[in-house]
Q: What sequence folds into this?
């Protein structure tokens, strides 16, 4: 038999999902920034080698 009243745990689950998505987005952005920085560095080093 189902419980009557407010649903259990929906607020905590929503909050947890929100926080985990924020964490994943932060990690993804850091990874993209690192990749871009490395790309710039390699381009700069290749330009120095040619000169």
A:
């Amino acid at each position: 038999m189902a419980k009557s009243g407010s649903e259990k745990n929906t607020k905590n689950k929503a909050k947890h999902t929100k926080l985990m998505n924020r964490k994943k987005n932060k990690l993804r952005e850091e990874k993209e920034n690192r990749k871009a920085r490395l790309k710039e560095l390699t381009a700069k080093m290749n330009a120095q080698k040619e000169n």
Remarks:
- The CA atoms of residues 33 and 39 lie 10 Å apart.
- The first helix runs from residue 10 to 50.
